[in-house]
Amino acid sequence: MELSDVKLIGDKSLEHLKEMGILSVDDLVRNYPYRFEILSRKNINDERFYDDMVIDGVVQTSPVISFFKRNMNRLSFSFIAQNHLIKVIIFNRAFMKNNVYPGKEVTVIGKYNPKTQTLVASDILLSSLPDKPQIIPVYHSSKHITSKQMNLFIKNALVSYKKENLIPEELKVKYGFIDEDRAVRIIHFPDNVKVLKTALKTLKYEEIYGYMKKVKELKTKNKKHDLSYVKDFDEKKVEELIRSLPFELTSDQKKVINDMLDDLRSDVRMNRLLQGDVGSGKTIVAFIVAYAAFTAGFQSALMAPTEILAFQHYQNAIKLFSRTDFRVGILTGKMSTKEKKKVYEKLESGQIDFLIGTHALISKNVLWNNLGLVITDEQHRFGVSQRLALKDKAKSPDVLLMSATPIPRTYALTLYGDMDVSSIKTMPKGRKKVITYVKKTEQLKDVLSAIYEALKNGNQAYVIAPMIDENEEDYTNVNDLKRKFDLAFKNYKVGILHGKLSNEEKDKVMQEYLENKINILISTTVVEVGVDVKNSTIMVIFDADRFGLSTLHQLRGRVGRNDLQSYCYLISDKDVQRLKIMEETNDGYKISEADFKLRGQGDIFGVRQSGELSFKLSDIKKDYDLILKVRDDVNEYCKNTN
Ligand code: ADP
Ligand code: MG
């Protein structure tokens, strides 16, 4: 059954569901509630319940409606409940105004403030609640699809849905799980807490089981021996290239290069994740391996998440390989059809040995002569399907993924269990630590004078804000900062960068910054990914408490990319204790561990991880022991998957 076959889901809803990442009936059914509200009437004098009050009463006044901001409205009225006169406020329910009138009995659910005797409601029920407690599933909602609507869609989808059992019967009995199809129905329509708990337990296990099973299958598949994987490269030429570098490789770089050269030699496909902190020098490693594959007669691909980054890699590669016969090409979406066509032709006829580019590399027009190695930079920026699409361009290429988001090693081994993991832990010599300060808003003057000093010396500064426009929560925003910085730095050029700009605009701004035509770049976190602007020596992050430590670390990695002393200023009035970790260490692994301890998986895999590790019910950190147990179970019960 297609999503469009589900009753009540029309074209519009289809579009809105898609925005939420729900593309199939299965996605919909697996869109589990993230919490449950238990509704039973509360006593207004019992302060334990102030945060989730459920209370019956009688409306006293006609509702007053006010409109504000662009799409917001506010409906308020007073009502008498348990002998108290209470003011009720609810947002964006102007459409209820005719249903709420003096004398009407309603049940209001929300947060109660006894001082002001105000109840800010999350819902108003027009029919009164049954006496038995009700469990209400709450879903992540969007501007277009409310939690209730989501539940209704799922109800309609479940009519002709049958979940297949994944967990072996014996394990179900062993752990006291229930039938998976039943569990799905219960989680969306719970009527008793005890059974709901069992359903949650079952589905959480099921989710991890499915994931670990896939990992195991991939592992088996990837470990097949086949002589066609052997790449007989020219060791002498590779050594020559390494000797010609303007710097000495770090010992970690040498080690990971050796790991990968071994992969090339072997009759098993390379399937490797290369982790290394920002600035640790992953690119050169990738270049060397691509060159080795070339000497064995194979083409290589390097896919980067942005045009700028692809172009930067391209320029570096051109420089590095100018004295070799290794021919490097570039392909990005921005290029003209004519230019692209030329690249396609050269690629197919084998006149390009190493193609660097963006998503454009996975276009169906791109045909290779003899693709043997596929490299993805900043792999967490891509979805699994994009990476697979690139891989599918060849019969069975070696695969190298690179990531600057270090995951603590134990977690990586479990979750990327089908891959080999190499890490670069040491930084190149001579790199100065970025000196980091946590500053209060009132100390902003110090920060501004530091920026001023840097600009005076011809250096550049990044300024990061969490929001683009003005926002309800009052966080610093890019547009506002732009106005203020224009005033404060009259003789300098201030540029802005954020996700609402088109790709062309973004590239233009980045290019200008790269050429020092823009002196201060105010940006959201879009600036985070990999571009090297060596001349930047200052990174200022407003509302730093809004970000996870790993994100802050990535952002900080934009400066300190040469031998000049660089500085990072974290501006925040709260959460200073956590931010202090940034003052203490520049080690991405330590920061990642700390982040993991403090925030769980959220920030590390975050929104950016594009779906591949998006457990709905499990948390990689909190449920780590369970994950290990499931891994063992999978190993025991899925013997003959291939
Ligand atoms: P990342 O791992 O973040 O992708 P890059 O590959 O962009 O880092 O490397 C950052 C900078 O360090 C580049 O300018 C690169 O030329 C330089 N670099 C890489 N390896 C070394 C080394 N062994 N010694 C000195 N500089 C190096
Ligand atoms: Mg990089």
What does this structure look like?
This protein has 642 residues and is α/β, with parallel strands linked by helices. It folds into three domains: 3-150, OB fold (Dihydrolipoamide Acetyltransferase, E2P) (Beta Barrel), CATH 2.40.50; 227-424, Rossmann fold; 435-585, Rossmann fold, CATH 3.40.50.300. It is 37% helix and 19% strand. A seven-stranded parallel sheet has the order 11-12-10-13-14-9-15, sandwiched between helices. Strands 16-21-20-17-19-18 form a six-stranded parallel sheet, sandwiched between helices. Strands 2-4-5-7-6 form a five-stranded mixed beta barrel. It is globular, with a radius of gyration of 28 Å. The two termini are 28 Å apart. The relative contact order is 0.09. Mean pLDDT is 87; it is low at 601-612.
Strand content: 15-25%
Provide the spatial order of strands within the biggest beta sheet: 11-12-10-13-14-9-15
Query: What is the total number of structural domains?
Result: 3
| Cα gyration radius (Å) | 28 Å
Bound compounds: adenosine-5'-diphosphate, magnesium ion
The total count of strands amounts to 21
Kindly report the average pLDDT value: 87
What level of helicity do the residues show? 25-40%
Q: Find the structural class using helix and strand composition.
A: alpha/beta
What's the CATH H-level superfamily name of the largest domain? P-loop containing nucleotide triphosphate hydrolases
Under CATH at level 1, the class of the largest domain stands as Alpha Beta
Shape: globular
Determine the oligomeric state from the structure: single chain
Distance between the termini: 28 Å
What is the number of helices? 21
Low-confidence runs: 601-612
CATH level 3 topology of the largest domain = Rossmann fold
Name given to the CATH architecture of the largest domain:
3-Layer(aba) Sandwich
Largest sheet: 7 strands, parallel
